[in-house]
Amino acid sequence: MSKNKGHKIPIISFFSGGGFMDMGFEQAGFETVWTNEFDAVFAKLHSAGITSWRKSIGNGIKAEIFNTKSITEVSSKEILVEAFPDGKPEHFGMIGGPPCQDFSMNGSLKGFEGDRGKLTTLYFDKILELNPTFFVMENVTGLTKRKETKEFLQTLLKRVEKEYFVDHEKLNALEFGVPQYRERIFFVGVKKTKLDSKIVSQSQFGKWFPFPVDKKYKNAATKYSWATPVPFGKSLTKPKDLPLELCVESCLVPPREINSTANANEFFNLYVTDKALDAIDEGETNRPSFKRLHRFKYSPTACYGNNEVHLHPYRHRRLSVRETLRIQGVPDTYVLPAELPLSKKFKMIGNGVPVPLAKAVAVALKRFIKDNKVI
After folding, report:
1. pLDDT tens, 308-343?
2. Active site residues
3. Domain extents for the chain?
4. Whole-model pTM above 0.85?
5. N or C, fewer C-beta in 10 Å, the chain?
6. What is the CATH architecture assignment of 5-219+354-371?
7. Is 152 helix (H, G, I), strand (E, B) or coil?
């Protein structure tokens, strides 16, 4: 652990995946002391990526997934012993984004009955068993959109709300400087014994937690005149008012840099004729697959599994691993091993929480903890 351990609030992380949420919390000054990832390849990718990123900022702590069991098999006692070998501290936090395909409007819609949906229930169980000072949970907005899942979620929250004040908000990565339209719901809970109840009772509409707002990018989807679809291969100039960092163009790796930029020459080959690809307009992202991104617009939600294919705006190829990492706000110093499977890399990247969004939530949480003397 780092020398500054005494000054950093420890975090235990569930469903850690590539560690994007952990990275955001570490950037905000928390310390990840325990991680959990059941997928063995994701665990290897996580260890390599986070270790290389930490090295780049002068942090010599090697990343490793502390536990690779399913959350259904790992006991809370085991977690506490692994995370805190010197004994459970008075204060620590818990973060995680349970797999969400069963709630996604584009997924199976099995809700809490699906295998992945049950993991959300288990996450809430772990909160009550581990008793952290605070917790954060991230999930798809579908969790609160369908009547049956919304009602079941409320029953889960009622259990947790006996011990915790809980607030939630829908946040869009695009509004935090990420070139991607990705809406997700975040839940924040703080132990009732650690927070003055007046802060909650005096809040408007029960909204007591100051979820982050980035004034620069607020309402970005409607604030700017975004580029519209154009025929493939057309020469374009960026509209003056558009921030380049919110455009896919800011994430693309030029041909001259493909072999010198880590993970930039890793992409799936296309088994489609050039003629068929020529017919797909730049910015034609409303297709079920083979969505061609627009260089001067944000990406739709990063989702690279199964038949979801995101095409380069003006080249006949799919996006590379590095380009998709950039679309998730991951620094180039996060490097993945070339020999591990491409399909796993893309799936893991698509599952992650955009790093700048995770950091914004973490910064808001850290400030709230300090301002309200939670710790």
Report:
1. 899 999 999 999 999 999 999 999 999 999 999 999
2. 100
3. 5-219+354-371
4. yes
5. N
6. 3-Layer(aba) Sandwich (3.40)
7. helix
